[in-house]
Design goal:
The chain is built from 22 helices and 34 strands. It is α/β, with parallel strands linked by helices.
């Protein structure tokens, strides 16, 4: 193991300032021309909405009577509809005041709503008030249109089901995954009134009692609502001779719960499926179960004798890595010393007592387990102590498929609960992925469950997942094979940038660490040749961007490549020189070690090895900290820096690059890392400022030297599946920013907290003004628009002149009102990408040493997501590294001397009144 952690340990990054803003960061939204027109024509707009409400409620009553006459299943007593709203101004949660539940907050301003008030009396009352008064404090003009629910299939079906919708056969059975909205009523407590400044106990308690009396909530309401809706769904499905599929034990239905919804896998007739999608008021997502493909294996008999090598058991308190896969050959001579056999468990239906790896051709889970222990290959001789214990959680059958009866979210929850609580297992390797590109508009139940499990453990669980593979010869509806790409003239690596190459479910998970594959070797024996060169993306490796433009995969490891004989009609093979050396199952014969299989499945466990090494070195730190260090250690290969276009493509295909255990664990004389561990927490509207002090050596090297600066932020937050935007999917979202040249920490904090405060107040004033005089309000808006535009351009220009020229930056190109992309204010070299979209945010820049002489500050900033509780916090970890590009220049000891403890000053409260 590298000893850099002993010689050059990571240093602590010091918090020097923190503050919280009294109004939400970001201020008010931009008002569209449509909303303005609706305000100017309040009577006409209100009349149109009222007509829509009348039609929807009337049709609902008629449909209810018709269903009773036809003997169709009873539906929940709620009317369902779709609203089109101003996406920049209207908050979906405002519908609660109108008696409307948000079933799904969709993209482009569409919301699926449902209301137990089947007359929509509260909404109707607001509309009538708008018609009568022509003004008033109402957001009704921001509701552009109210549509009947007949358009629901367009918004809730997966792409595959949408394409098959018109061909659904009424009497044919279908197995689908269904998401049902069910808001955790306990979340409503977060809206309980907060104490005002100088408010007496008596007055505050009076307001609390009034609020509680109005809402009449109890902690049991969530379970009651959940039970009610699962019963309603089950009765509905049963009447179509269907069922909610049970979990493996068969004693209860397999349902996965989040704070806003639950999901399950159901078997139902085609006519019932159509009725469910069109009429069940609380359904927000219907998709087909994932399919799986078996990787290509070309048996290669190894002639090397490894019988003289011995694996020794790890320390008793060594970390555990749970392999969620096809089982493991636990008595394999290269594995058995590290297997925690006492906790091996199978979730495969009908095979609950069978934990071996029954996959023919050398197994799958056995290879994965070996890659965790031997990321660089199996030694020929000697002895080696295993770095961790391997735990065996079998979920794939003997054909390497996930059984239909296994609902992934449910089984993952059971696995994490079993291992985390019994053995404190924190690292889970999940080299299982579907064959189709992940969806980009809504998070699947599988990926969302991973996000939820990580959140529930406050980032102390790390899921390492495979990015997924493109099959060599077999094409699927949404995933053409490599052969199909080549035959269509889409050459490597161009096809890896197509939407069909996108990472597979559940690799889009916001809070898992997704791993792609790169080639470790090349093969040339005409006409045979490997597709990828060394350190280039493997021909089969799925790529990014992920959901909501996140960088996926975050890292890559060596998972092999394919060899072809031509591009016009290729035949594929996997000779030893392009395959990673892996432990192989001998259950069906063959050698114990071979190099004959490729895939992202075998790249992911090599990253799990680094995570295990970090757990050995930092046993008290959270897994959130491990994730940050792994990404911080990653580097793109040299070819990626040949041009901006190559850099963009490399990040799309390889994320942040190939991680390095030495850089993750420690430093060197020319490199230093400053850290904030994963126990630090932050609230929405809060900023925490960390100061980096620069040693004098940066001023005494003649003309200076190049320094690589890298910053990584890693955080976790609570997910919600019914929200289809990263800022709404998460309870709180974070980003980071750096101070300008010579900017004082106090000034920097104030600048971070005050951004858009003035904008917020101006927009509030405009909303008041337009209610008094519409024409005067519109005139003021024109002046306000020009003012905000000019001020924003100035702010963006100033930010672009900061200390660093980042590779990614906080912003990316966005079309302006004329559809043009303007570069002003974009602070990254790769202008098509942003570092800020995911829960792992890394950026890097090269600067001259003398530009750092005054030091600088980094602010971690919390922003409000769906959680309105001002006291809610999320954990994060922050890593900052400096490396002298010239390895002969020593900087580590100088940083040790200068990083003196800095006193944290009193929290600053900015009040805008």
């Amino acid at each position: 193991m590298p000893d850099s952690s002993d010689q050059f340990p990571h240093l602590s990054l010091r918090l020097v300032k923190e503050g919280i803003a009294s109004v939400p960061l970001g201020g008010g939204g931009r008002v569209s021309a449509t909303t303005l027109a609706n305000r100017g024509d309040a009577g006409g707009h209100g009349s149109r909405l009222k007509a829509s409400v009348d039609l929807i409620t009337t049709n609902w009553k008629e449909e209810k009577e018709k269903r009773q006459e036809e003997g169709k299943p009873e539906l929940p007593e709620a009317v369902s509809f779709i609203l089109e709203v101003d996406p920049d101004l209207f908050d979906a949660d405002d519908l609660k005041s109108l008696g409307i539940e948000v079933v799904a907050d969709l993209e482009q301003g569409y919301i699926i709503g449902a209301s137990a008030d089947t007359d929509l009396s509260q909404l109707r009352g607001k509309i009538e008030k708008l018609i009568q008064e022509g003004k008033g404090k109402t957001k009704i003009p921001a509701i552009w249109e109210i549509l009947e629910g007949t358009q629901r299939p367009e918004y809730i079906l997966s792409d595959c089901l949408k394409a098959e919708w018109d061909r659904i056969l009424e009497q044919q059975e279908y197995v689908v995954e269904v998401g049902i909205s069910c808001i955790d009523i306990r979340e409503q407590y977060s809206r309980c009134p907060k104490r005002k400044e100088s408010e007496s106990d008596e007055k505050y308690q009076k307001r609390i009692n009034k609020w509680l009396g109005k809402h009449n909530l109890s902690p049991e309401d969530w379970d009651d609502l959940y039970s009610e809706r699962t019963d309603q769904l089950q009765k509905f499905i049963n009447q179509y001779n269907g069922e909610i599929l049970q979990n493996i034990a068969g004693s209860e239905i397999g349902i996965s719960r989040l704070s806003d919804s639950f999901s399950c896998r159901v078997r139902i007739l085609g006519k019932g499926l159509k009725d469910l999608v069109l009429n069940f008021p609380y359904v927000f997502d219907v998709s087909e179960p994932d399919e799986f493909s078996v990787p290509l294996v070309t048996p290669n008999e190894s002639e090397l004798d490894r019988e003289t090598f011995t694996l020794e058991a790890p320390d008793l308190n060594a970390p555990k890595v749970c392999v969620i896969d096809s089982g493991i050959q636990e008595l394999h001579p290269k594995l058995r010393a590290a297997i925690d056999s006492a906790h091996s468990k199978s979730w495969v239906p009908g095979e609950l007592d069978m934990t071996a790896d029954y996959v023919r051709g050398g197994g799958h889970g056995t290879r994965v387990a070996g890659a965790i222990l031997y990321p660089l290959g199996i030694p020929l001789t000697g002895r080696q102590q295993a770095i961790c214990w391997i735990q065996n959680a079998r979920i794939l059958d003997g054909d390497n498929y996930l059984p239909t009866k296994l609902f992934p979210p449910k089984v993952l929850k059971e696995i994490v609960e079993f291992y985390y609580h019994r053995t404190k297992t924190r690292i889970f390797n999940h080299s299982v992925a579907g064959i189709s590109p992940c969806r980009t508009q809504s998070m699947t139940s599988w990926a969302a469950e991973i996000d939820k499990l990580i959140w529930e453990k406050k980032g102390d669980v790390l899921f390492i997942v495979a990015a997924g593979n493109i099959a060599a010869n077999t094409s699927f509806v949404t995933r053409p094979s490599i052969a199909a790409h080549m035959q269509a003239g889409r050459n490597y690596p161009d096809y890896l940038l197509s939407p069909s190459a996108r990472v597979a479910n559940p690799a889009q998970s916001f809070q898992a660490l997704t791993v792609g594959s790169v080639s470790h070797g090349s093969y040339q024996n005409p006409p045979l040749r490997s597709i990828a060169e060394i350190d280039c993306p493997s021909a089969f490796s799925c790529t990014g961007l992920g959901i909501w433009d996140t960088i996926k995969p975050e890292v890559v490891e060596y998972g092999g490549d394919y060899v072809v004989d031509s591009t016009s009609s290729p035949s594929f093979s996997t000779p030893e020189s392009v395959c990673p050396e892996l432990v192989r199952s001998t259950l069906h014969g063959g050698t114990a070690v071979s190099a004959d299989a490729v895939g992202t499945s075998f790249a992911a466990p090599k990253v799990a090895h680094i995570a295990a090494a970090l757990a050995v070195e930092f046993p008290q730190e959270s897994a959130l900290f491990y994730r940050a260090l792994i990404v911080q250690s990653a580097r793109l290969p040299n070819w990626a820096h040949g041009s901006v276009e190559k850099l963009y493509q490399a990040i799309r295909m390889m994320g942040y690059g190939i991680p390095n255990a030495e850089r993750a664990l420690g430093n060197a004389s020319n490199r230093v890392t400053l850290k904030v561990d994963g126990s630090e927490c932050i609230r929405a509207r809060q900023a925490k400022v960390y100061q980096v002090q620069i040693p004098k050596i940066f001023l005494s090297q003649g003309e200076g030297f190049d320094v690589l600066v890298e910053i990584t932020l890693s955080y976790v937050a609570e997910p919600r599946r019914t929200r289809r935007h990263r800022r709404k999917y998460l309870s709180t979202w974070l980003d980071w920013t750096c101070s300008k040249r010579g900017e004082d920490p106090q000034v920097f904090l104030y600048r971070v907290l005050k951004i858009l405060r003035f904008h917020h107040l101006l927009i509030r004033f405009w909303l008041l003004l337009i209610e008094i005089d519409c024409e005067l309000g519109i005139l003021f808006l024109c002046i306000l628009h020009d003012s905000l535009k000019n001020q924003k351009l100035l702010e963006e220009s100033e930010e672009g002149e900061g200390l660093f020229r980042w590779t990614l930056g906080k912003r990316k190109f966005k079309p302006d009102d004329n559809g043009q992309k303007r570069p002003l204010g974009i602070d990254g070299i790769v202008k098509e990408l942003s570092r800020s979209n995911g829960t792992i945010q890394k950026d890097w820049a090269i600067v001259r040493s003398y530009d750092l002489r005054e030091g600088f500050c980094i602010a971690v900033v919390g922003h409000e997501g769906w959680n309105k509780d001002p006291e809610a916090t999320v954990p994060y970890s922050l890593i900052v590294s400096f490396e002298a590009v010239n390895s002969e220049i020593s900087i580590y000891e100088a940083f040790v001397q200068v990083q003196q403890p800095l006193q944290v000053q009193e929290e600053i409260q900015l009040t805008v009144s």
